[in-house]
Automatic annotation (TrEMBL):
Protein's UniProt name: histidine kinase
Keyword Nucleotide-binding included in the entry's annotation: yes
InterPro entries tied to this protein: BphY/WalK/GraS-like, GAF, GAF-like_dom_sf, HATPase_C_sf, HATPase_dom, His_kinase_dom, HisK_dim/P_dom, HisK_dim/P_sf
EC class name: transferase
Species in which this protein is naturally found: Mucilaginibacter pineti
């Protein structure tokens, strides 16, 4: 099947996909008393039947074709005006026209089907070998109404088809992009780990102050890069359908895990004070690595956006039911409009130079909390901002 034939078949399918078409053709034949009615697709060089009602054995069925020059629809395509003939033999214009003579017609009506963008699709027509009283405002109005209705459905179907094609294309593009991100993030882990190991080895050696500072910068940078890679991979995994994966343990050493994160960030922010208070009376069922990732995102966020020279407070609590982790920093209130988008991917709000990021940290943190059956809430005032993780201490509790 050629591309042109495929396009015509799509037009035939589109017309027959309109449930009302057969009802329209039935109303047309019964109202006018004419035995044949059809919806035709008409182009400069083709006339093809899309839908038909034939009670006079004219012989056409959907997909059949007439030579375009032998039809009156060829003229309608050119001037976009209806043609209505009560009695061919008595009509001054069409009495000697080749089309009625060729097909044995005495009554004929055809109205153009115009799409919303002005394109001519074809015609709604009816014919009969006997005369019929159709050249009146009521019949012509009915045909125009039905032609407009068919055009409306065709426009709607075309719009749906375009939207579906666009959606498929966007989905394919998004999947390729996310697969690329996942592969890239995975391949970046090894060189980043190698740089981190070299930096750690250098810091264990007796070095000049300048070299030690450079090694410290390299170590701090790899820590940030690793966090970005983890967030990218988690985001790509979530979007590709895998979601945030967990490896739970019944009694994770949560306090040790969180203290390790605090120690790492104190190295990166030596000028800032991080005050931590723990009151863990119940073992927590969780994925310690994921909780560390979540906490690192929250604490880094507090250190980045909190007021310089002020303390960041970490309060950790657990009882028989809940585990709570609160990270509080001093500083300006988060604007209401930013609060609405904090936990959405790539939402960064207003950031100062040097504070830019991908805007995935809070989104990933919220997803980790959700995977644990918990939530992250935020409160912000002119004095302080507090992010609070709350989740059940036992697996399956909500």
């Amino acid at each position: 099947m050629s591309v042109l034939e495929a396009n015509f078949q799509a037009d035939i399918d589109a017309v027959n996909g309109i449930e009302a078409v057969q009802s329209i053709l039935e109303v047309v034949t019964r109202t006018t008393g004419m035995g044949f009615s059809a919806v035709a697709r008409v182009t400069p060089d083709r006339w093809i039947t899309c839908a038909v009602r034939d009670e006079v054995d004219f012989g056409l069925k959907p997909g059949d074709e007439l030579v375009i020059e032998t039809t009156i629809c060829h003229e309608i395509r050119q001037n976009h005006q209806p043609v209505v003939i009560d009695h061919v033999a008595a009509d001054e214009v069409y009495a000697n026209h080749h089309t009625p003579a060729m097909y044995g017609l005495q009554s004929y009506i055809s109205v153009p089907i115009m799409l919303k963008d002005g394109r001519f699709f074809g015609t709604l027509c009816a014919i009969d070998p006997k005369p019929a009283k159709i050249n009146n405002p009521e019949t012509i109005g009915m045909f125009k109404l039905f032609a407009d209705l068919i055009a409306f459905y065709l426009d709607a179907a075309e719009q749906v088809a375009r939207s579906q094609a666009r959606l498929r294309e966007e989905q394919e593009t998004a999947e390729l992009r996310e697969q690329f991100i996942a592969i890239l993030g995975h391949d970046l882990r090894n060189p980043v780990a190698a740089i981190s190991n070299v930096a750690q080895l250098l810091l264990r050696m007796p070095l000049e102050d300048r070299v030690k500072r450079l090694a410290t910068i390299a170590q701090d940078s790899t820590y940030r890069i690793k966090g970005l890679i983890d967030n990218i991979l988690d985001f790509a995994s979530g979007r590709l359908g895998g979601g945030i994966s967990l490896s739970r343990k019944n009694s994770e050493p949560v306090e040790d895990i969180l203290n390790h994160v605090i120690a790492e960030l104190r190295l990166i922010w030596p000028e800032r004070v991080i005050e931590a208070k723990f009151n863990i009376t119940e073992a927590v069922n969780c994925d310690g690595t994921r909780i560390a990732q979540l906490f690192s995102n929250l604490l880094s966020n507090a250190l980045t956006h909190g007021q310089k020279g002020t303390q960041v407070n970490v309060d950790v609590f657990s009882d028989g039911e809940d585990f709570k982790l609160c990270v509080t920093n001093s500083g300006k209130k988060i604007p209401d409009i930013a609060m609405e988008h904090l936990f959405k991917p790539f939402a960064r709000g207003s950031v100062a130079p040097g504070q830019q990021g991908l805007g995935l940290g809070l989104f990933i943190s919220a997803e980790i909390a959700r995977a644990h059956g918990g939530t992250i809430e935020v409160s912000s005032s002119d004095v302080k901002t507090c992010f609070t993780l709350q989740m059940p201490v036992k697996y399956g509790l909500v």
